[in-house]
Amino acid sequence: MHRVMSVLFVVSLIGGSLLASSCATNQGTNQAAGVGASLGALAGALIDDNNRWRGAVIGGLIGGAFGGTVSEISQRSAREAAHEGKPVVYKSDDGFQRVESAPVAYNAQTD
What we know:
This protein has 111 residues and is mainly α. The chain contains three helices and two strands, in the order H-H-H-E-E. Helices cover 68% and strands 7% of the residues.
């Protein structure tokens, strides 16, 4: 019974995420947040054996924040690359994370 309730909770999170993302103005970021929340909730429910509800909620929150943030940074770098007409690179301070974007018609030999 407990496992059935967890599955129902995850399904309701997925449905809510899809509904929220379809009503949003910036669909790309919000869809990524919805997918991140759904996958995070599913992973959290499966990992936390003691309390699947708690695992689903915590995983959904972390996954939603991470998915939305990564999508926003990616879209921002793509817009900046298109506007500037040259490649854009965002790096974290520790150098571990990196996002690169280049305009579609960019030719490195002419730069």
